Amino acid sequence: MSDTLGPLMERNLLEVFGQLDTAHRAVAIAEIYTANCTFFESGERIVGRDALNAKIERILQEAPGFVFRATGPAEVNHDLGRLHWRLGPAGAPPAVTGMDIAIFEHGRIRALYTFLDKPASD
Fold first, then answer.
1. 20 strand-pairing partners
2. CATH entry, 2-116, from 3.10.450.50, 3.40.1190.10, 3.30.565.10, 3.40.50.12160
3. H or E stretch including 108?
4. Distance of alpha carbon 101 from alpha carbon 79, whole angstroms
């Protein structure tokens, strides 16, 4: 099953977090996430597909014109996966980089933990 979970994480980055249309994003969320999914991001806990969709809408509104890109393929170890990504204007250096850690259940994402990289210090 790990051969399908890596591509699932990559789909999540592009079709969920990278999708500007709320309705299309909701369809992708229903395909990729369990009904009781949880999204964790630095002190915030979002529960359920609708709440996840609303959270992503806020993220995308705060970064107009930015796109998510994977920095390599997703890696899966049993029911855990990780994917490194970057976010920034198309064709420009990233404004933010990070990593997603997913917990899978029955071929879908049950929980997603997002870690933002700290900026390099001088």
1. none
2. 3.10.450.50
3. strand 108-116
4. 10
Output the CA–CA distances (angstroms, integers) from residue 108 to 6, 12, 25, 87, in the order listed: 11, 10, 15, 24
> How far apart, in whole angstroms, are the C-alpha atoms of residue 91 and residue 122?
25
The domain ranges of the chain are 2-116
User: What value does the CA radius of gyration of the chain take, rounded to a whole number of Å?
Assistant: 14
Q: Helix 49-62 and helix 22-32: axis angle, to 10°?
A: 130
Digit-coded pLDDT (tens) for 62-112: 999 999 999 999 999 999 999 999 999 988 999 999 999 999 999 999 999
Pairing of strands 33-41, 108-116: parallel
